[in-house]
Amino acid sequence: MKDTVSRRQFLSHSRCRRGRCHSRGRSGVRRPGRAATAAASRPASTLPTAKIGSLTLSRLISGGNLLSGWAHARDLHYVPSLMRAYNTPDKVLDTLEKLEQQGVNALIADPRKNVMDLLARYWKERGGRIQWIAEGHPDAEDWQTNIRKSIEFGARAVYVQGVIGDRWLKEGRLDLLGRCVEFIKSQGVPGGIGAHQIEVVTESEQRGFHPDFYVKTCHHSRYWSARRPDQDLPVIDNPADNYWDMDPVRTVRVMSAVEKPWIAFKILAAGAIRPESGFRYALESGADFLCVGMFDFQVEANVALTRSLLADPAIQNRSRGWMA
After folding, report:
1. Do the Cβ atoms of 323 and 260 come closer than 8 Å?
2. How remote is the C-alpha of 296 from its chain's centroid?
């Protein structure tokens, strides 16, 4: 990737010119100084925050499927095309700006070229400061390159994506997860593990992989297209695309004993559950952060809902303690 620079270069390239300070980030993108910073850095709203290591994150984190162009739509095959038609590059930048204005300071997205291009544009053109948590997509035969490129570009944390965690569990190669986490942390950023199957988490805990955080699915099954009794395939092998947490009760039970920050994702079962229900379930179940993909017109309501729920005494005093 020709535009990446090292962490050392990032520090050495900071400079001031013509009275306005600029720094060239690890992505090679010049980020505006204070005088040029867009409204994105002046939040109109605030959200409670918490830390993973030294990284301060809003309790609500944006998902990245809307940037990368993925869409879970079950048998509605036109939805991905419709989503991509709506979320033009400029609309994505507008959405990122709205997220920051509402207090969302981080997003999770995969390290695809179009995602990186959009982030580079946003940081440069809009003066945005949103933090990127990269989905690590390491190859079993070369598990360092993908991770290293994300960090060089500017990822503030990296975790091994849930599909890969599930696959390595199935293939008996889960030891690679521990090696990836160790490598990520050696690069100076928090390292995490993602999973749909709770066995990835239990094995990680038993084997002492010591991730800084987990990214684990969490949704209830009270929705119309929920998993049927005859659907017993692992999530990564399920062609129906209608469930992401096979055993929510077990997820809650296992995570109650895990003393590490938990970013819950697919909390709305890819749009099948209303936010009022899905957000509450995930927070009451013990999630420390919520990861939710949002269109621009959903941001303000989702932020207000998150703020309201976090102030609820029943959630503040839930069974699982706050690990972040």
Report:
1. yes
2. 17
